Structure formats: C-alpha cells, structure tokens
Amino acid sequence: MKIRTIDQVNLSGKRTLIRVDFNVPIDKSGTVTDDTRLQAVLPTIRLAIERGAKVILLSHLGRPKGKRLPEMSLAPVAPCLSRLLERPVAFANDCVGEAAESAVAAMRPGDVLLLENVRYEAGEEKNDEDLGRRLAALCDVYVNDAFATAHRGHSSNVAVVRFVKERAAGLLMKNEIAYFEKALVSPSRPLAAIFGGAKISGKIEAIRNVLDKVDKILIGGAMANTFFAAQGYGIGRSLYEAEMVDTAKQVLSGAAERKVRLYLPVDVVVAGRLDASAPTRTVAAREIPDDWMALDIGPATGALFREALRDAKTIVWNGPMGAFETAPFAAGTQAVMRALADSNALTIVGGGDTDTALHKAGLFSRMSYVSTGGGAFLELLEGKHLPGIAALEEK
Fold first, then answer.
1. Which one of 16, 49, 242, 387 is most buried, by most CB atoms within 10 A?
2. Catalytic residue list contains 375
3. Which of 208, 352, 360, 383 is catalytic?
4. 278-301 residue pLDDT tens
C-alpha cells in the first residue's frame, strides 16, 4: 500500500485534523472508565505536538444517529486526554460550523483541540460529501489514526479526504497495516491461523481467504460445533449453525486439497446450561451428551493446539475458544493465550472478545501485536479493501 504516514509530513504550523477512535465507555458521572483507546493514539498526537502542528482531534462516540444526545458527548474525554498528555485539551461543542471554526482559528502551534462527536451530524454515516468538505475546511493536513473504523465508508474517513491537500496515516494505523502485512502478505513460516467465537457465518470469508495463505488452521469456540455436525457428530444442545454445515464441509475438503493442516477440538467441556454454577464434564468431541452443550475446548485440545503451534513462526488469532466470560469455560482460551505467549512466533491478535480475554488474563503485553479494530481486522483477514485505508492511498 502506497500511503504516506504522519512522520513523513511537514506539520509545522499546520492545522492537522486527526481522525481518532475515542469511542470509549463513560459512566453516568461523566468519567472515562477505560482509556485504552486514548492511550493507543498518544504517540501520534505527541508527534504532531512536537512538530508544531495545531492538533485537531475528530472522533465518534456511540450511535446517536445524527441527534445531539448528551450521554454521547465527547466532552468528558477532553479532561481525561489532558491528564494523559499532561497539557490542556480544549473542547469545541460541535465538529463543524461556527463553534469549530472559531476554536480552530484561535489555535497556536502545539495546541490540542477535541471536536464534538462527528456522529451528531446525520451525514457522517452516509459519507456525505458536503460534511466531508466542511471538515476538510478546518485543516491543512488530514491524518487517519482510527483503524477500528477503517472498514466504514463515512464522511470523517472517506469524503473528507477528497478535499484535503495532504493526507496521511497515523502511527497506530501505520502499525496496523505493517503487522497485517507481516501476518498475511509476507509472513515468516509456518503460518498458523486460529479462529474461535460463536459463529462460522461471521468468519467464513476470512477462513476461505486464509486457506490459500496459511500452513495450519486451528478452530475452536462454538463455531467448532458446526464442524462437528459436518462430520456427523452428535452435538447435543450445543450452539451451531445448521445452514452452515455444508460450508464447513467445503472448508474441510478445501484444507485437505491445499494440504493445510486443519485442527478441530478432540475434547470439549460440556454443561447443561451456560452458568458458572452448572455441573461440567469433559468429553470426547464426538461424544457430547444429548442434553448437554459444548462450552469450551477441553484440556487434550489445549495440549494439541499448543503442540500444533510449537513450530509456528507467525500466528494470527481471532476469537475465543469458549464462553470465557464464565469461569468454568475460560480454560481453553487461557491455554491458547499461554501457548502464544510462550511461543517464539510473531503473534498478532484481533477481535474485541480476544482482546478482553488477554487483558483479563494479564497476557496482553505478551503478544507481539493486538489489533485495535475487531471488524476492521476481520475484514482485512477476508481480503477486503477497507474504505478508510483506501482513501489514504496515493493515486
């Protein structure tokens, strides 16, 4: 991808509009309860400050659908970001119009300004060209550092780019692209991909796309139940997708044709209901009792997956191995996390649930890279061009 990055642009004295992802949780008292997404873009903001830019930050929060809902205001983010940057962060109560224009006009090099929620504008999610033009009028340089929204074609990451003279990717976006290319464009081999989560339907395109790229695929989570059904196993009351059974059969035969090793669970943890207090058993994958449901991979599968990953040089992981939020069904996901943490491979992880599990286990820092975008990461795995990235490419 031919994309300039922020470190290649002269920012001195220039109004620099940075699209960030500050879609953070805010409690009823107006306090940001998780600043992970703010932390992720600090390097980009600090670089812009150091290079004398007038730093204008643009983000969405929630889905207000063009309405000014007070609970979705970005105002509480400004003091939180100010503490992290250890400098004042001004706030404009609109993202376009007089309030935004006057706030930008008053800026000096090194100043930081946060604009109000861009989704207060009805045209944002419609990729409205006029809104893109009005946003572009606020800046000399546009920088996109919101990878998590790169799969959305909105005014703040597509239309705006048509009206700016200089555009670039931020440092976070640069990392996301670089690690993806290390994973699937020019990986060190063997390359292994791990897929988990509830539904094969949400990840089938990604699985199909990587079949031509990987050496091994490991499948866990409830989506494995659909593969069990494809092999004729009884799955009791386990969650599965009947309409995807034939697709699972195609994946199994496709892997065999390409000589890609495809690993499915050999044992599972079952229970009569998804409840921490429910009695559990570990059974062979082909022996799930009629009135029970598979809710995690079993210990033998954890050991099998660890062994399968032992020689991998690159590992891509998306989706948990079971209902990890409930304690009795978290061991499988933890086993895979530990296998990645202990490996010598380049480990690239994506997906909100997987991210949450890593934080919960204290293993987040043991991964080579954890993507900030669940949907965007998955669409890259599917081989799609993301609108927010494509807009940055030099023609």
1. 16
2. yes
3. 352
4. 999 999 999 999 999 999 999 999
